[in-house]
Amino acid sequence: MFRYIREIEFQTICNYVKEGASVLDLGCGDCELLYRLIKNKNVRAQGIEIDEKEIYKCVKKGVSVLHEDIEYGLSEYKDNSFDYIVLQQSLSEVVKQPDKVIAEALRVGRKVIISFSNFVHYRARLQIFLKGKTPITPSLPYSWYDTPNLHFLSISDFIEYCKRRKIKIEKATYLGTKKRAYLFPNFFALVGIFLISKN
Fold first, then answer.
1. CA angle 7, 11, 14 (to 5 degrees)
2. Which residue blocks in 17-170 are alpha helix, DSSP H?
3. Between 129 and 54, whose confidence is greater?
4. What CA–CA distance (Å, rounded) separates 151 from 120?
5. How does strand 167-175 pair with strand 22-26?
6. What's the pLDDT at 98?
7. 109-117 and 44-49: which strand pairing?
8. Beta-carbon contacts of residue 69 (< 8 Å; ≥ 6 apart)
9. Whole-number mean pLDDT of the chain?
10. Beta strands per DSSP E along the chain
């Protein structure tokens, strides 16, 4: 199930990106997303990753990647250096100061794509309510002691954040268990994917 959701997440992000655009992926991991964007959308791609093992995987795929901490790596870039900045699951898993990183991403990129697991999906709510335990769902398949997540946010949290910061949400896609979640995404969606820009 987790692979299925990740596959749809990648496809959605690829659909958000225009042909031939410049893309910077923050916390790019093994560069699978960037590799697909290069192959299918002919993008000019750059990744930032701190894990050396993941960087070796990127190099094997022929993707350009910098060994940087994404908390500080954007300060070296000029305004609007890229068409798109991508934070695919990085916001909740890697970033310690999300407000700072989002602001910098919006400065460096004309548009920013952010995806994250929805921590208030109904399965998570039921596990907390009925079992009194930290939830495990298809998009959150980790136990509390080995989870990579640092921040626990919901789709509603992110939408409210964008309103407060006057950030424009250009597109949003919500992924449910077997299909997109159109109704009550904060309840039924496992993953939220947003295309945002400066208002």
1. 140
2. 32-41, 52-60, 90-93, 98-108, 122-126, 155-164
3. 54
4. 13
5. unpaired
6. 87
7. unpaired
8. 50
9. 86
10. 22-26, 44-49, 65-67, 82-88, 109-117, 167-175, 191-198
Q: Tell me, what DSSP letter sits at residue 150?
A: S
- Mention every residue, 6+ apart, whose C-beta is less than 8 A from residue 99: 165
Question: In the numeric block, which tokens belong to residue 10?
Answer: 């990648």
DSSP state of 78: P
The candidate with the shortest Cα–Cα distance to 121, out of 108, 139, 133, 103, is 139
pLDDT at 173 over 60: yes
| Both tokens assigned to 37 | 């964007």
Contact residues for 15 (Cβ-Cβ < 8 A; gap 6+): none
Q: Would you say residue 143 has pLDDT above 60?
A: no
- Minimum mean pLDDT range among 72-76, 77-81, 130-134: 130-134
pLDDT score, position 139: 59
Domains for the chain: give ranges and CATH numbers: 2-198 (3.40.50.150)
The reported pTM is 0.86
Alpha carbon distances (Å) from 78 to 3, 31, 75, 110: 36, 23, 8, 11
Query: What's the Rg (C-alpha) of the chain?
Result: 16
| Amino acid sitting at position 75 | S
